[in-house]
Amino acid sequence: MPTGVIINAASVLFGGLLGGFMGNKFTEQFKNDITLIFGVCSMGMGIYSIAPMKYMPAVIFALVIGTGIGLWMHLGQWINKGAVEMQKPISKLFPNAKSDMSHEDFVNTLVTVIVLFCASGTGIYGSLDNGMTGDTTILISKSVLDFFTAAIFACNLGYVVSIIAIPQFILFYILFLLARFIFPLTTPNMILDFKACGGFLMLATGFRMVKLKMFPIADMIPAMVIIMPLSWIWANWFLPLL
């Protein structure tokens, strides 16, 4: 049973519903300040994930090449379009789901939240770990933060945040099913570099959350796909030559 995956998706679903309902109960100052705290938390989690990195050149290569692939594919633009389409039916079902934010701020914030929930290294690694070992610790820990994060962001974005639970569940469940095929091909060092790559995405997400620098996080996602092969190639092909 994908227990951890279900719990994580449920935390986003109910956190989004709670935030959408309570949105008008909090002042703008409170919502802005608490969002800064979540940004710092995301940065801290990213730094924590980066620290045990084994092969820095492989991770840097993955980030640069992966982001290049994302920019070439216009992945960020596709996710932006998807975010806008997600909002349309929600605004019809829940008229009060509309935010006072500008359209550009709304899309930028929604994309940040989608990446935070669906593409974090912690979530992806946790889904693989849950599928391979049955351990739900990582995903449950992530769920605690996701619940409150979804609630706070839903205060501004509305009920659309709760719908992010659907793509999140689909993605993590697919990873859960693929775990039995992926894990036997990995090494501990590959896992460390994978988590470090995800840590960089979470660090960039934190910068977006505090609106300090709008990193193209969506375009960085392909780095998560190529990091483990690059880590293996670096360890087995390049290191022996150095």
Automatic annotation (TrEMBL):
<feature type="transmembrane region" description="Helical">
    <location>
        <begin position="6"/>
        <end position="22"/>
    </location>
</feature>
<feature type="transmembrane region" description="Helical">
    <location>
        <begin position="34"/>
        <end position="51"/>
    </location>
</feature>
<dbReference type="InterPro" id="IPR007563">
    <property type="entry name" value="DUF554"/>
</dbReference>
<dbReference type="Pfam" id="PF04474">
    <property type="entry name" value="DUF554"/>
</dbReference>
<keyword id="KW-0472">Membrane</keyword>
<feature type="transmembrane region" description="Helical">
    <location>
        <begin position="148"/>
        <end position="178"/>
    </location>
</feature>
<feature type="transmembrane region" description="Helical">
    <location>
        <begin position="57"/>
        <end position="79"/>
    </location>
</feature>
<protein>
    <submittedName>
        <fullName>DUF554 domain-containing protein</fullName>
    </submittedName>
</protein>
<feature type="transmembrane region" description="Helical">
    <location>
        <begin position="221"/>
        <end position="239"/>
    </location>
</feature>
<keyword id="KW-0812">Transmembrane</keyword>
<keyword id="KW-1133">Transmembrane helix</keyword>
<feature type="transmembrane region" description="Helical">
    <location>
        <begin position="106"/>
        <end position="128"/>
    </location>
</feature>
